[in-house]
Design a protein that fits this description.
single chain, mainly alpha, Na+/H+ antiporter like fold
Length: 427
């Protein structure tokens, strides 16, 4: 069978079952994405192992579509972000991000040493726990109608900062091994041309990474300020069908690629940043309406299913105690690290708890650390499986936890008493 038809059949099976599972999940009062995630678990190597019967090309194509779905999800999340609320929550978001990195990192290192892992493996274990995947939280917040709250703005802002801090953690870990370069893209170009190929010190690598991030953020803001209005004006003059949507999609991909190559950050950060910069534009509603269909009809469900497809529970036999401890550290590290940081900034305790719960999910960022450590021979198959399971479990419980904590204290009119604090929340 031709590869494209094989991919078409796989997509038909995944999309149909994902939407059915999402419907069943919603009927039981749970987020629809929970059903989509569990479909991936059932169809993955843990149970039916659907991808075993397809070609490598089909599996690779499915993974690429899922990654594009993550970009589109983050762009839509950026569009639906309250910009003014993010400005008010910027100080809190930074503190939350720092708390969500320091405590999980320390907890992961301590846990690794407690279970007699090497110092290198223990540091990578802690590094994997620092990551936050905002995709799951963003989708859940949109589903329950809380995207315009202070908590949502803080979670999304902190996750973006967390991505930057997590990059530095990875850079330090990589540089300490001397197995691979901690720099890539523009940082690697600067290293090759400015340092003439000589091995840079750790501080030099950090400086190059910081310069790369600053260059991307500055150029991204400058283009949005002066170039983007001209692009949007030109796109709206075209007579082609959905020309504006096509150009916006192109910009999403461009920002994602620039974030990765120029800024050294994850591509989803660039996609979210573009949506955030367009959140107050006059084309927001038009773009949002046109991209919802392709996003939620095709690409975004594939992203959530693919998270479950990566899990293989069968390889966990004999490691249940370490897995339980790892899950405890992963959950408590974010809930307490982020929650206490938010509370220290003067945030109401219920709002702080919601922020901590919203930061639990690891998602694709955690998997990057796992793949990196596995490729360097630092993690064996069981350790990699435990971290992947931790990513999956935190991804599954985050939507449930968010729904629960947002329901706490909700009155008969559907408003939470803490909503009254929203306008006066400290910056």
């Amino acid at each position: 069978m031709p590869a494209f038809l094989q991919l078409a059949l796989v997509l038909a099976a995944l999309l149909a079952t994902a939407k059915l599972a999402g419907h069943i999940s919603a009927r039981f009062g749970m987020p629809a994405i929970l059903g989509e995630l569990l479909v991936g678990v059932l169809l993955g190597p843990s149970c039916f192992n659907l991808l075993r019967s397809v070609s490598a090309t089909t599996g690779h194509s499915l993974a690429l579509l899922a990654q594009i779905g993550a970009l589109l999800l983050m762009f839509i999340a950026g569009l639906e972000t309250d910009v003014e609320a993010v400005k008010r929550a910027s100080g809190t978001a930074f503190a939350v991000a720092v708390g969500g990195v320091v405590l999980p990192l320390a907890g992961g290192v301590a846990l690794g040493r407690l279970f007699h892992l090497s110092w290198t493996a223990a540091w990578f274990l802690g590094g994997a726990l620092t990551a936050t995947s905002v995709s799951i939280s963003a989708q859940t917040l949109m589903e329950i109608g809380r995207m315009m709250t202070f908590e949502a703005s803080t979670i999304l802002g902190a996750a973006v900062i967390d991505d930057i801090l997590g990059l530095f953690v990875l850079a330090v870990l990589s540089a300490s091994l001397a197995h691979t370069s901690a720099t890539s893209g523009f940082s690697a170009w600067m290293q090759a041309h400015l340092l003439q190929g000589s091995a840079p010190s750790l501080l030099t690598q950090m400086a190059l990474l910081l310069l790369s991030m600053a260059a991307f953020l500055l150029l991204a803001w400058a283009f949005a300020r002066w170039g983007l209005p001209l692009v949007l004006q030109l796109a709206r003059r075209l007579s082609s069908t959905h020309a504006l949507s096509s150009w916006i999609l192109g910009l999403v991909f461009l920002y994602a690629a620039a974030a990765q190559w120029l800024g050294g950050m994850a591509g989803i950060t660039g996609a979210y940043l573009l949506g955030f910069l367009l959140a107050q534009s006059e084309v927001r509603k038009e773009v949002e309406a046109s991209l919802h269909a392709i996003g939620y009809g095709l690409l975004i469900p594939l992203f959530f299913v693919s998270v479950g497809l990566l899990s293989n529970i069968r390889s966990l036999s004999g490691h249940w105690l370490l897995l339980a401890a790892l899950l405890l550290v992963a959950i408590a590290g974010k809930v307490f690290g982020c929650g206490l940081a938010a509370a220290a900034c003067g945030t109401h305790r219920l709002q702080a708890l919601r922020i901590g719960v919203g930061m639990m999910s690891r998602g694709e960022v955690g998997l990057i650390v796992v793949a990196m450590a596995q490729g360097l021979g630092i993690f064996n198959s069981a350790e990699s499986a435990m971290l992947m399971t931790t990513v999956l479990v935190t991804t599954v419980i985050t939507p449930l936890g968010l729904r629960i904590v947002f329901d706490w204290g909700t009155g008969a009119g559907g408003e939470s008493p803490t909503e009254a604090l929203y306008e006066t929340e400290p910056a």
